[in-house]
Write a structure and sequence with these properties.
This protein is an alpha/beta fold. It has eleven helices and 13 strands. Bound molecules: nicotinamide-adenine-dinucleotide.
């Protein structure tokens, strides 16, 4: 049985993760540690927060070292899934400070709390009794050329933004706690996620909102930057497989095997909304507007997920076409529900 700590559980991936795993028979308690920044919303956990018997919420800032240790001790945490982070690249360019204090110092506080709570005994490394799972990003590897092979677990780190540099630094701290203290840590790195409950500053929800409100859709540069899109449900399944069956000290890359340019993705969203909401008048592609590129914008990311497929039997269940259709339908349903509340 595990007492599982999920950090950042009120955010996009964290809330999807909690929804997906909370009823797993192995969990006796699930603690969501989140300080609720602009990106954290407890409504993402409607039906669980304040309701589910295994669920506990701790409104704690990772930058508060004493409070982080208190949570780990009070709930006798055995497994950690560490997702809390400042996660938006554009914000890291305009104000990098929070990325350093949360992503680096916050991870350090969590590692220290786990060390103080006895996560580092040699016995734990051999068994699944305790685990520390660090959720990282493909962005730590930097940018690929158009013909380069996808990133593997042995690719070198070459982060290009304050966001990816802060995630790379926190990965290095996690690695060092495994090497130095025997912390049974595992690092996963995933590609761009999409799906329900994403904060509306990220590409896919931004495009959906712009199309629905018939405003111009901003696309950076020439729109030919390539990303590998992973459905958040597939990502959460991979994280659970890694937590329960992954080997301590290992790293696993998780990718959706859906590489395409940002422009192509935006066009797909326009076409799907034209089909699902014909009353908007169609021709949504005409709203696309190219804007000045983001500084240091990585050209291409792609993940080779062969290791997690072979060792842990994971494979994505969604194609981009099916996942995107489902995601847009979810946002349209939410918008309709909000409008009907507004009318009452
Ligand atoms: P998000 O921004 O939606 O959510 C982050 C959550 O962390 C929020 O609930 C926020 O309140 C919380 N948080 C932030 N600072 C905190 C602090 N100091 N103390 C406690 N809580 C704090 O992020 P996301 O998109 O869900 O990403 C989750 C993780 O996955 C991050 O570590 C991110 O680097 C990684 N990741 C995300 C993607 C993606 O496409 N979204 C891709 C690769 C990796």
């Amino acid at each position: 049985m595990m007492n599982l700590l999920v950090t950042g559980g009120a955010g996009f991936i964290g809330s999807n993760l909690i929804r997906q795993v909370i009823d797993q028979p192995g969990i006796s308690k699930l603690v969501n540690l989140d300080c609720l920044t602009y990106a954290g919303h407890l409504e993402n956990l409607d039906g669980i927060h304040g309701v589910h018997p295994c669920y506990v919420f701790e409104q704690v800032d990772l930058r508060d070292k004493a409070e982080v240790l208190r949570v780990i001790r009070q709930h006798d945490i055995t497994h950690v899934m560490h997702l809390a982070a400042e996660s938006h690249v554009d914000r890291s360019i305009t104000s990098p400070g929070d990325f350093i204090t949360t992503n680096i110092n916050g991870t350090f506080h969590l590692l220290e709390a786990c060390r103080a709570h006895g996560f580092c005994s040699a016995f734990s490394i051999q068994h699944q009794l305790v685990r520390f799972l660090q959720v990282s990003t493909d962005e730590v590897f930097g940018s690929l050329g158009s013909h380069d092979p996808a990133f593997t677990e042995t690719s070198s780190y070459a982060p290009n933004s304050p966001y990816s540099a802060s995630k790379a630094a926190s990965d290095m701290l996690v690695r060092s706690y495994h090497q130095t203290y025997g912390l049974p840590a595992i690092i996963t790195r995933c590609s761009n996620n999409y799906g329900p409950y994403q904060f509306p500053e990220k590409l896919i929800p931004v495009v959906i909102q712009k199309v629905l409100s018939r405003q111009s859709i901003p696309v950076y540069g020439d729109g030919l930057n390539v990303r590998d899109w992973l459905h958040v449900g597939d990502h959460c399944q991979a994280l659970w497989n890694v937590l329960t069956s992954g080997k301590a000290g290992e790293t696993y890359n998780i990718g959706g095997e859906n590489e395409l340019t940002n422009l192509h993705l935006v066009q797909m969203i326009c076409d799907l909304i034209d089909e699902l909401k014909p009353e908007l008048g169609g021709h949504s592609r005409s709203l696309i507007t190219f804007v000045a590129d983001r500084p240091g914008h990585d050209r291409r990311y792609a993940m080779d997920a062969a290791k997690i497929r072979a060792e842990l039997g994971w494979a994505p269940a969604h194609t981009l076409a099916s996942g995107l259709r489902e995601t847009i339908a979810w946002y349209l349903g939410r918008q309709a529900a909000a409008a009907s509340v507004g009318r009452r």
